[in-house]
Amino acid sequence: MKTRAEEGREGVNGGAERPRKRRKADVVEPKRAEHPSLSRESTLSQDSPSADGAVELDTHGPRALTPDPPSLPSFPQVTLPPAPERATLAIQGIDRALAHAQLVDPALSFSLSHVAEDDASGLSLKTRTRLKELGITELFAVQTAILPHLLPSDRQKRALYLPYDPPRDVCVSAPTGSGKTLAYVLPIIETLSTRIVTRLRALIVLPTRDLVTQVREAFEAVGKNRGLKIASATGQHSFAHEQAQLIAEKSPSLQGGSSKVDILICTPGRLMDHLHATPNFTLQHLRFLVIDEADRLLAQSFQDWLAQVLAAARPTPAPPPHTVASGLPYPDALAPAFLHLSSYTSGILTDIDEKKETSCQKLLFSATLMSDPGKIRALELRDPHYIIVQSASADKEAGVLDVVMEKFSMPATLKEHMLTCSSSIKPLMLFFLVLQRGVRNALVFTKSTESTMRLVKLFEFFEVARAAGLAPSAAADTSADISKPVVVRAYSSDLSAAERKATLEKFKKREIDLLVASDLISRGIDISHVEHVVSYDVPIDMRKYVHRVGRTARAGRDGDAWTLVEDQEARYFKEMLRNAGRFSSVARVRVSAKQLESWNGLYETALKKLKEFYARERPE
Ligand SMILES: Nc1ncnc2c1ncn2[C@@H]1O[C@H](COP(=O)(O)OP(=O)(O)OP(=O)(O)O)[C@@H](O)[C@H]1O
User: Which of UniProt's keywords are assigned here (predicted)?
Assistant: First the structure.
């Protein structure tokens, strides 16, 4: 019997014997033999004998039976263990708090009483009455779940300063349109309305100006007649104007800061500007720091905004005693956790001084909350409580895994469709959806501003050709009046802030049928009448998809999402859906050439006009 190594040598060298390489086992053997339990005999005896008593060693064969040269017995063939499941890998190393998340059924709700003084929601009668005026009679799942954490029945825990018993932070993952905004607006208004002096106590950070405007409107609506001052900072107005809105006292520099507002809603860039350059702008009195669209904001660095905000809210060490100024008191008020900075204290800690912490409670929200441990660490969360509003699974681990593996929950009332076609007829597919399927009150997403402009122009030329009766009108599968011209407008970063606002207003008033945009408004924007979302260009990842389609089917309303997929993109798009567990939820829509036939002529005419238009616009 030949060993495999010997067979191999024969195969390569034609039988010529080469000196055998010194193997590791040869070196180890004498040492092992020194110990009786590791001696050759005892090792061999562990192998199972064959029927005739000879030991079968499949790798060393006869050599193993002879005492010389000494060698170790064979080990079993190396076999790789089966690869761990993706789910197993995903759960490894996740934040402990996330693993203990509170899973909430999206169907959960809480009916509000508008007469009783006390209500288990924790909301005051004033707030509930205001909600009734706004047409809100019940709390949605995310609001029902979060209020006990932010408005505890123990009123002391609602105090504006909790330096010795600081509140736990809260992270929320809930589907688009599920009411996350009110989930933080309500407890903030309720808690702050007990305040006597105006200080900056709630800071809400959002990724875009449009969202700042929207959230400010929500605060103003709910907080009406509660005496709280609300401001926003986005850079839309001059810096000096914003400073005048935010700060009462410009000089001298007050250690406790000075604020004209209780609640500030802002973008991170502008927040940094005020933190650096606005005298007396301080975050030491913050009771709430809300990071909405948290995954998007944490992906953006903006001069390391998060680290700077956290540092500004955190008590700083006491200055050395000899630097503490004496003299007349300032009209000043330090937060309790910052009192050691006062000119009246020595700055020397004694045994009875307990460690004081910032009272700022961080609240994170997103429909696509990240689980990246690195990013979460950067938030310096305090004993965080996770709330996941998640349909389908009652199994806690599965629910947490869905967040970790980016299988985000979608609104139950959303219907998803995909249409596959060649790139050359993609615009025709959109015309088909609008004219045959009655797609109106729709947001159409493209991949870029340029793509938005081209599509809007092409649609306009198409409508001009249609109005001129250049093609027979086809029988539509819709009740929509297709004889009416379809109004299409662009919403892009090329427009001025005023133009964008005006366009959005017109769309809200239903004066625009199709609003074409890049991903500028794919997150957070809440327009209740959006019935359809069309992804004219496929979204590049699942997060984008979730936020785009989430512009419809909000607050329990119905909605349809259509994705136009070019043939070469189909594989990638389907794979993306499959990985996110959405493949079976998306209906494939087949459109035959015959169904498109009636619009072909108009399309050709529109394309020709578009070419002429761009030739005029950009002469060579
Ligand atoms: N309890 C409620 N009753 C009725 N309508 C509500 C309630 N809560 C919120 N809404 C409405 O639901 C809509 C969606 O809410 P909101 O914009 O807060 O969703 P969201 O979860 O933040 O979505 P996104 O993730 O897309 O930002 C809004 O028009 C809001 O006014």
Answer: Hydrolase
